[in-house]
Each structure stands twice: as structure tokens, then as C-alpha cells.
Amino acid sequence: MKVRLPFRRSGDHYRISPAWLTLAVLSGVAIAASAVVVAPPKKPTSSVVREVTQSGGKLGSVAPVDSSSPNDLQKTSVLPPAPASFQCAAGRNGGATDVGVTGSEIKLGATIVNTGIGASFLHDARYGMTAVANAVNRTGGVCGRKLSLLLKDDGWKFDLGGDYIRNLVEDKKVFALAVVPSSEGLQNVSNAGYLKKKGVPVVGSDGMLIHQYLDPYIWPVAASTMSAMHIMVQQAYDAGARHFGIVYESTYHFGLEGAVAFNAAVKRVTHAEVPGFSNPFKNAQCKERFCGIANSQVSYGPQIQVFNNACLSAPKCDFVALLLEPATAISWLTAGALSPSDGIRMGGPQPLFTRSFAQQCGTRCNGLWLWTGYNPPIGANLGRRAVSDYVNAMQTGSSADFTNTFVEGAYLGMTMMVKALQDVGPQLTRERLIAVLNNMTLDTGLTPPLSWRAGDHFANTRMQAWSIQYKDRFSGWRDERVELEDLDAGKDIPT
Amino acid sequence: MRELRSAWLAQRRSCRGIRLAAVIAVLALIPVFPVAANAAQPGLHAVGTIPLTSGSQLVVDNHARRLLEVGGDLDRPLWITAYDGNDLRKVRSVTYPSYWQQSGGGGKPRVLAIDEAARRLLLVTYPTSESMDNTTLPTLVTINLDSFDVASELPLATVFPPGLRPLGMTIPSQNRILLIGQAVPGLKARVLPSADVPRMTGVFVVEIDRVGGDATWGPVVLRGCQSAITYFTQAEALTTPDSVIVGCGATQAQSVVAPGVQAVAAVERKDTSVQQLYFLPGSYARGDVYADQKAKRLVLVASDPNSPAQSVWVFDGIHKVFVGQIAAGNLNVLGAGLNAENGRMYVDIDGAVLVSGDRGYEIPQATSFGYGPNLGAVVTVPFNSSIVVPIRGPNSTWVYTVFRDTLSDDEFAPGGTTDFTRLDSLTTEEPQFAADAQAFGLRIERIGGVNAALQNVFSFGGDYWGAFGNATGLKDGDRNLYFARIRRTHLSNDESSTEAVAVDRDANTVSDYDTIKKSVSLPDWRYEEAQCGDFGGTPSSPHVHARALDGEAPQGDGDATGACSLEKSLARSSAEFGGVSIPNLISIGSSLSGTELHRDATGKLVGTVFAEARNIRITGGVSIAFVRSEINVGATGKPGGSSATYERIFEGVETDTYSCGGAESCDASKVAEGISSQLGAQVRVELPSADVLKTKGGAHGHAIRDPWQQQEDIVINNQEKTETQVPALRLTFVNDRALASRLIFDFAATKGDATSIRIVPAVVEPPAVPLPPVVVPKIEVPQLERPVVTPPKESIVERVVRTIGHGWKVLVAGEGGMFARSVGLWVLFVAPVFFAARRRVLRRLTQS
Fold first, then answer.
1. A88-223+379-456: which CATH number, 3.30.70.240, 3.40.50.2300, 3.30.460.30, 3.20.20.80?
2. I need a labelling partner for A434 at 20 to 30 A (CA). Which of A472, A488, B32, B271 fits?
């Protein structure tokens, strides 16, 4: 066979035939094209504007996981096949496949906050849960099993909440815990290793405390308080801030661990700790620019003086984080502490993202940036399908404040629970539910797509900023069009 | 060696075409493949400047895609310069020596309108510079937009006799124009100090036939409207099917020497005697008004540098409510613009341009883009989504910069109200129901607090708009006090709960109480709430009874009770309080409210809610013995099974112009009219509307606050979204000026809803075959930090072939819609190859 070579010699020159030339160029193009197309997605940058949403994993390290956990036994998306006789329908679903499961019912439990100080922002969260459960039950439940929600009001109390959760698990025999808006009781049982011991999954929690991300039996839907602090620092630094200060809540755990995360994040970008830093778990005090305050104080005068003096001395603070719950934040700001109205860039976490806080704080909070891990149901977001569906669901049969981020989180958390149950199918067991949860991706439109993996429950690490607009009156939150990924999710966890 | 080198060089020369093709390919790949990586962020992008003359005005000709600069002043007659809207080049310039136009700005705006369908530009002009200065003999001139010739003239002297100045013009329909005019007292005296001056004061509107010049509607004087809002641009009127709406910078609704309250004035088309003022706060000294005729929205720009309360308000002309406010924070509002095609708003503030939309139920707060310093009106160019913003350039000149707006419409997508009728389409196999109720006997709201009241009443060096600041030491913001309040009663298939309290207060009032307590001897707050919740199992407190915290209930104090039982499907509560008095203003004898939600014997979910206030006496000669509202709602989930009523009852009303005795003889609307005429224009008397709905399918019934009025309450009065009670009567003492300052009394307010989803019995399945015990196989997989997808191993040859194949597939098969884009790329790739080959062939031919 005669093979035609691409190059042939013609006198002093090597000549190439046009056909081969064309083929060679096209092959080169094809290679180049494939190189571009199959190239892995770019790693997220620190600043991601929402319209240019990029995919890609987080760069932050993953929290260590107890290797003996059964969680680690389920690191595949492939579930063992259900027996052929099992079908996703009433009467054919396998019946009582695990604790709290019958052929017609799945028993779920949660502690809620109907009374006490936490009710100011956690009260309505239960309506987010029941809205989803009712919607699922209307369509026949999950594989013919209706969801039965057992709710207990623990008043946001650590001990009572723990007792109620134990009661739900041992006496009421719930299959799993859903959302659990009352975070105090959840911390109680998680710290005690109770969930692991009993093998009870907690699905769709509010992420206030970092233990929820570390416990292999809890799957939070929210961005953590620590992520909020990382992101605040990163955004402020990118915007030119170099001198940081923080006022944190020393009464509650979220304030302590958030303060640690803030200091660590500042240290990463400025190579220096926040002036006055001392470990808040050992010594929570208000010193220089690292100021811990308790919510029960009658007056914050001395602490305000310390903090203001430190922050206004050269070089002045150019960013201050306000890691407080609403009542304490209002008391602090209205008593004369530095505020955004003094021309200082300030940021706050999710619990401050409420209408009542903005109204009560008044002019002092104009321009305060608040961070949330959800698409809030305000302004133009109300025109988006997922958000309007959520609002409609909430306005059916309740007067719940759907703008409350904890209500939206509860709705999202319960949606996650339902999706996981549906993915498990008729052969419902805790073990299979855990396997599904550890390979789950949830795309509701209320957040960017969230993915959980065994050993990595930091699904929601992206937050967006909205700022309070208050001049003589509260007129709403402005979308600052800033959405950032926490590149350090899982770091700085206090031991 | 030399031979090898020359051969290599020859080959290199021969491959020049390949290298060229490769370079082009690489360059071409950059924009085609990673499109997103280099795409500009959505936002405002400067695309050029346009050399406008200061004081002129831009008009957009969308049809011809041109920008028309309209100029002229006391020294120069009317002139028009046309620019190409895309490349911003000057296309044509025409001067009209016989016509002089108001020079624009400061209360003498250029009055004009464009009729794109007829290709005409309409302008109000004057025959001489002097007549323009004196506002005499105005003429409507029509200019052909294609030829720029004057098509017609129409004298307007009968509509605008001396002393009346035209301020705005819109085209409501073919052959009609609507003009806004205003009496100018100083002008009258200077020009015509005779008896010929018409007896018209304030602002008026008139619609005329633009061919014959006859008035087809009006003129109508807007009662109480002293001046129209206009500064950079002309005053615009919003026309709706039933009314004409204008922005008023000052009204006569005032009780002190301070300037009048600002408002939107609406006049009914059919009966021009029916007019209404809708008050709003703000400083409009340099404000403008824009009409969005498509969405029937009026946009009011409150602007007055360094004064408080600068923002942009959106008024809905259909529902007659304010639906939103775009705030500028502590910055000055310096101008604005509205793209009436898509409702996008642009607001100049210090160092930035804000972008938002005026459509929808809730107006989003604007997005900020840093540009500036800027000043003046923003001209919007719908045909290519651009805006023209005056930005300060070198040597204090103004550079009219054109920005392309690349923001998606999704950014400002309008949301709507909840559609409850969809509940009829839902079904359930087991009972699903929920009912909710709220009520209070009396609510006192102090909008703006003490500081806003002082701001509006006192002048500072003669300036009522100068910032007052916090002179009292008390917090800014609103104050709310509720009496006989039931915060919420809820009954559903999984919950029975209620919260009631005799006296309830907001956080600002708590703070005030504590502040005042430091200097004045006051008792500790003593009203606890009655709260219970039953979520199944053991109720937290099945029956509660709250009194004063110290256990005593002295005369005049209140009480609250509640009962919750999920088992009995019952939630009930009541609250009451005694006398409340504000000296020299108002006193209320007592207030009471109650709720009961339960399922009756037939399974129907039923809710009853009531609230009352008694012995109300208002200084100025108004007394009301009894006012009550009552709601009854129900839902069965069966067609025709839902019910909803809202009833408003008055008894024993006494005013100078109206009185009635029993409930049957008291007509609510006449009661409101009587009180309104008694208390004067500064007190707004309302019978708030209830949205009463019972769905046909029986799934839902409710009586709640009209959602549009509720939205206005949120926007103007900082109402919580969840407070949807409907008061039987509302009195608003309006003291708005720079700031919103209102004292609102809501009497006997109730809200109730009931939802019961239609039950469809489950399909009876044949009994399932008993299944063997489940054995769940233990899944054992190696531990991984993260799931990693490992591709199957393949040889280097396979990888090369696969890679080339994949690229080939992308380019040829058009994977992901790539084919269309790659056509251009193909041309680029092949062209140099083709030309290189052709060149060689030609050279060979010529050499041979």
C-alpha cells in the first residue's frame, strides 16, 4: 500500500500538501478546544459576584471526623438495592423498616422555641417545617408514608432541650430529628455524643454553632457563624480595610466561637491578631479592639469607652464586626458605641437580619452590612419562583414572618429532610438515610446548590450581603451584590 | 550540517501558514470558549460622552434611535440638535428664531412631550424672549421629527392667561394633551396688576384637544395643592382610567407656620370635586416627578441637598398607595430618571448612581454603582438601555456621560401578592387545617418619635428643612403601644397556641420607659402575657391567666387569658384594658379583644375574632360611644364550605355635622365624613379596607388587611409585615414635612383566616403480602476524605485519540450549542490555510 506523506521534498524546500495542512490545523484546533472544554473549573476566587456564579469545591480544610463513626461507612452514592418486593407506594413500602417508621408514617421530632428570649427570632421557625410537611403529606407522603412531626417547646433552654430530645428519641421513638430550631438542646445532646450513640440523624439544622458541622449525625443547611466571620473579614480586607475590631456576645456559644474565627481570619490577612485578643473561651473580656460583652449587663458604658477609645486611636479601625444577638446589639449601639453612622464599615451575622432589629436600631444602623446564607424573600427576590413559592407556602395558614431567616432556614431544612427520604425510597432506615445525606445535593433556588459529603457537612459556605437603609425611617435592605465563598470553612474550630 | 539547517529553514518558511493559522486559532479561542470568564459584570458601563449645553434638555426619539437636545433661553431662541443614539455623533442642528422656550430648571421647566407614533415633538413656547420671561402668550408648537419643520402652532393663551405658568405636559391619548399649570403670585403682580388676573390659585390640570385647542376636561384646581413638584424636569401627571394624579410640593394641610405637607393629589375624572391628598414626607425643593404610564406608577424624587429625608417614593395610581421608597442613606439625592418602558429607576446620589425598579408589590432597595460626582436629572434611553448622567469633569465642567445598563430584568423582577385561591386545588388524605387570628382594642403609633415631630415644627435660622438631629436624647424611630392585644391565636392539625397581653409595647417604648424612669419615679412595667401552646402530648400551659405582675389589678388596669387544647381542636384568648388618655387630644374609656378558633361538630374550622373600644372622646368635638370590628371565618375544604365576613360597627357617634345612636343608625362612611369635617384636613380619617375572601372550593376564608394598604403601612408607617389586622377606624394626625411624623390611633382591629384542605379518601390498596424481616446489608467502603471520582485507566494513545475526538465533537457536532459560534471560528481557521496553499499554487504556476 502506498502511503502518502504529508511532507514532500521539492527542490530545496519541503512542501506540505494543502489537504494535510488543513487536517493538521483542524486537529490542533480540536486539541486546543478539548483542552479548554475539559479543563477543570476554575477554583473560586475570594470575591465572587453573584451573576458570575462559579462552580467548584471549597478550598478550606475539612474538619476531622471520628473514624469510628458509622458515617464513614457510607461514602458512596450507591445504595444497596431494596428488596424487589419493596415499592414506593402505600402498602408496598416494606412497612416498619426502622425505628419510628411504619407502612403509613414516618415519625420525626424537633424541639422548638415558643417561649422565652429565643422566641423573638426562633418562634416562627416551626411554621417553615410544618408548611413543607403538610405539602408532602398532601401528595401522599414519602412512598406512602406520611410525615408525623412531634414538636416540643423547650424555651431555648440547654438542659430542657436536651431532655426533650432524649425523650423524643427514646420514648416517642422518632425516626430522625428534623431542623431542631432550638439550637441549645441540640448542642446539649451533640456534645454528649448522644446522637452518635443512638444513631439518630438530625437533618436541616440552622448552623448557628460549629458543632453542627462536626457532628457526623447533623446536616446543617445554613452557613455557619464562623463562615460569616471569615467572609466578613475577607470582604473588608478586599475592600481595603486593614485595622479590625469586634464586639462579640460572650453569653452565648455562637459569640465565642465566632470571635475566635474572626481573630484567626484577621490574622491570616494582616499577619497580626486583633489588638486585645485573648481566647474568649478562657477569658471573655472587653479589651482594646477585641470586646466581649454579656447580654445581661445593665450598662455597657465602660466597655463602650474601652472599645471606642481603642478603635478611634491611630490607626483607626476601618472594620468592626458586630457579633451580637438583636437585643444586645441595640443596647450596645444606642448607648453610644461606634456604629456605621460614624463612618466605620461594620458587618453583622444572620440573627440581626430582621426587620424589627433594623427599625429599632434606627439611624445608628444605617449602612450596616448583614450576611445571610439564603436568598432572602425581599425586594426583587420575591419575583423569583423559588422564593415566591416559599412565601406562598408560608402564608397559607400562618402569620409567620417569612422574612425571618430562621423561618426560611427551617423551610429549607425540612425540604432537605423530605428530599433525603424520597431518595432513600421504600426501604427506609437510618443507615440508608445517612448514606443518602452524605451524598446529597440540594438545589431549591433558596440557596446555591448545596452538597453534603461524609466528613464534610459544610454544604452552605456562601453568603451574600445586604445593608440596612435607614434615614429617619427604615426603608429596607439594599442588595450589595456581593456573594462570597468561605475559603476557610472548617478552619479555626476551637478545641 | 549546513544542509540540514537550510532544510529546516525551508521547512520553517513553508510552515508559515500553519503558524499563522495556529496563532489565529489560539486568539480566536479566547473569546469563544471561556465566554463567562471575560464577560463584563452586569451593571452600568460608560460608553461615551455627549457634548450637551448646560441648561438644555435631552428628549429620546426611540423610533429613529436619536437623542434630541432641546435648548434655548432668554438670549437664544429654541434650537434642537439631534445625535445618533448609538455612536453619539451630531446628526443635525436646527434653530427656530420665532420660538422661545422656558429656560428650564428652578420652577421654569421646559414643557414638552414626544408623540412617537405621529412622529411629532410638542413644545410650549413663547413668541419673544420678553413674553417668555413674563409667561404671556404661550403657544403649543408641533415639530415634525423627520423633517424638523414646524408642523403646526396652537395658541394656549386661553388655557394659560397671564399669571399662570405651564409646568408640564403629557399625552394621555391621541389628539389630547394634559397640561399642568400653576399660579405664580409674584408674576401676576408684575405682569398684570389688573382685574384680568384669573381667580385661580395653586396647581391645576387641564386636558385639551391638541388640534382645536378646546378644553376637553378641566381645568381642575387641585384643592390644597399649592405647588407642583418640578425642578430639573417638567411636572408629570399620571393618568389612570379613573383619575389624574399629580405630585404636590406643598399643601395647605397645616396647623402651624411651617410649610405645608407634601402629598400626591388625585382627582377623579368623572367627578372632579372628588379629590384626595395622600401625604408623604420629604424635601422637594429640588425634587422632580416621573410618571410610569405603563405600570400606572408615579415616582417622586425628594431632593434638597443636606436636608433630611431625601429619597425616592413610588406611588401606585391604581390602588392609591405608596408601595416603596428608595433610600439614599445619609447621602444626598441629586437627581433621578425613569425608564418608563421597563420601569427601571436611576437615582443620582453623592458619588454613585442607584438602580432599582418601580414595578411590583414591593419595591426593591436600589443597587449602587460608584460614579461621580454627579448632579442633575438622569436621561434614560430605552432603545439601547442607556442613561445619560451629568458627571463633574475637569475645571468644574459637566460631562454628560452615557452608560449602558447591562443589568438583567431579573434583578428587579416584580413580585406579587399571594394567590389564596390555589388552595382549592390541593387535596389531602388526612385532615390538614390551620386558622390564625390577631386583634387589639387600641393601638397608638407615634411615627417618627419625638425627634421627627420637633424637626417638622421648628425652623432653624428660618430653615424648616435644616437637619435637626437628636435634640432630646431619646432614640429616633417609631413608638407603638397596644392595648387589649392578642398577638396571635393559632389552631392547626399539629398546634394550638395563643398569646395575649393587656398592654404591649415595642422595644423603643421599653427604652423610653427605662430612660424616663431614671429621672422620674415610675413603677416597674407590670403586664405579663398570657401564653399557652399545645403541640401534642402535654400542653405547656393549657389555661393561662395573666394579670399585673405584682398580682394586683388596680382600677383601670388590664387582664389577659388564654386556653389551648390540640385534642379538643380549640384555641381561645381574650385581653382587656381600662382607660387611656392623652391630655388635650384624646381619651379612650376601655378596650377589649377576643379570639376563638375551633373545629365544630361537622369538622368545619371556625374562627371568631372581635375587638372593641369604648367611650372615645377627641378634642375638637368628636365622641364615639362604641366601635367594634368582628370577623367570622370558616373553611371545610368542600365547595361552598368557606365563609368570611368583616363587620364594622359604630354606636353613639357625635360630631357637629353628624350624629347617630344605635348600630343600625350609624353608617360607617358617614361617621368617617362627620369626624373628618370636624377635625379638619390635618387629621386623616380612614375606614381601612378589609380583604375578605372565601374561595369557591371551600379551602380558605379570610378577612385581613387589604394587601396594598398593608404595603403602604409598611412603607410609610413601618408596619410589621405580620400585623394584618383591619382597624374599624383609623385617625392619623399628620405632621409630615421633612420627616414622617404622625400620630396614628387604630381602634378595634381584627384579623382572621381559616384554611382546610379538601380531604380525598386514600385509595384502598389490596393488603400487602407480609414481608420477611428486613436485613440491611452493611456497606463497607474505604474511608475517603472526600469522594473522588477516579477515571478508568487508559493508555497515552487512547487519551490523545479521546481528547482529539472530544474537541472534534465539540467543534463539529456543536456540543452545548457551540456550533453556531464556531462557524466564524472555522472561517478564521481555514482562511489562512486556504490562502497559503493558494499562494503556493499560484507561485508554482507563475514559476513554471
1. 3.40.50.2300
2. A488
